[in-house]
Design goal:
CATH superfamily: Alpha/Beta hydrolase fold, catalytic domain
Number of strands: 8
CATH architecture: 3-Layer(aba) Sandwich
Number of helices: 12
Low-confidence stretches: none
Mean pLDDT: 95
CATH class: Alpha Beta
Radius of gyration: 19 Å
Strand content: 15-25%
Order of helices and strands: HHHEEEHEHHEHEHHHEHEH
Largest sheet: 8 strands, mixed
Shape: globular
């Protein structure tokens, strides 16, 4: 990391500040603690003949059946892939709370073919297929399954849950819920849409609407509570869409909770402890 930061031409003071920040996020003590209490495995599974990479993290020495959380990452293609640092920062802490966490990297990730991810298209099947794997995970309680999506992962979550009635509870962070509105807020996302979404040029409105839960809120299950967390200074995904989504959920009598963190960004970096407490409490309550 020192070499990486040094290449950016930082002066010594700025370099040490970056290193200190990195060490605060990934301390040796935290690593050893997670290693002592969790197992972490990667695997490859097939979805309609397509190889897909996944991961599962779970507490060790727990003889009771444990609830499961399906984790849907953000990003697209290789960008946002769940590497070890991602697991340590975003997944291990939740697993240590007594949950088995399973997730998909989405098709094409970590391969030379970076065109397979359709950003809410065929890749949604990579999420739904995880339900077939759960019975093979020792200790997994397949009757207590929740789902957690971050950024693009929120889109994956809402699309997948339409086909997964067994999911009992949902949580999202900085969720993508209205792709048309996101284009107005962040026009640069059109590059991603053009690259990822099939038939985008010819069917732009239809393809974006199909991926936007805001256009089919009335189809959401009324018995599945949704936690929505968002920073009001998010420059990647507009907090206004989460606020609109919460109002639509209320209108259609879908149980939910909206938490907006003042002054915070896409990753909720300024309120990590509060956001984690909210997330953990939500899943403990409903699973």
């Amino acid at each position: 990391m020192e070499k990486k930061f040094a290449k950016k031409g930082l002066n010594e003071q700025a370099l040490q500040k970056r290193i200190s920040h990195f060490q605060s996020m990934f301390s040796e003590q935290a690593f050893n603690d997670f290693k002592a209490h969790l197992t972490c495995e990667t695997f490859i599974y097939q979805v309609k003949g397509q190889d897909v990479r996944g991961f599962v993290v779970k507490p060790i020495n727990n003889k009771k059946k444990m609830p499961v959380i399906i984790y849907n990452r953000g990003g697209n293609g290789n960008y946002g892939a769940v590497v070890f640092g991602h697991l340590m920062r975003n997944v291990f802490p939740l697993a240590k709370e007594g949950f088995i966490i399973i997730g998909s990297q989405y098709r094409g990730t970590f391969s030379r073919n970076d065109t397979l991810d359709q950003f809410g298209g065929a890749d949604v099947a990579d999420v739904t297929a995880l339900m077939d794997i759960l019975p093979n995970i020792e200790g997994a309680d397949i009757n207590r399954v929740g789902m957690y999506g971050v950024s693009r992962g929120a889109m994956q979550t809402h699309l997948a849950v339409k086909e997964m009635p067994a999911v009992k509870v949902i949580a999202t962070q900085a969720g993508v819920v209205d792709l048309n509105k996101e284009l107005e807020f962040r026009p640069a996302m059109e590059k991603v849409y053009k690259k990822r979404i099939p038939n985008y040029s010819a069917e732009k409105h239809a393809q974006l609407a199909k991926r936007s839960v805001m256009t089919w809120v009335d189809k959401l299950p009324k018995q599945t509570p949704i936690l929505i967390m968002h920073g009001d200074k998010d420059k990647r995904v507009s907090v206004d869409n989460s606020i609109r989504f919460a109002k639509a959920l209320a209108q259609h009598k879908v149980p939910h909770k909206l938490v907006v963190y003042q002054g915070d960004n896409h990753g909720l970096d300024l309120n990590r402890e509060a956001a984690f407490s909210e997330l953990s409490s939500w899943f403990h309550t409903y699973l």
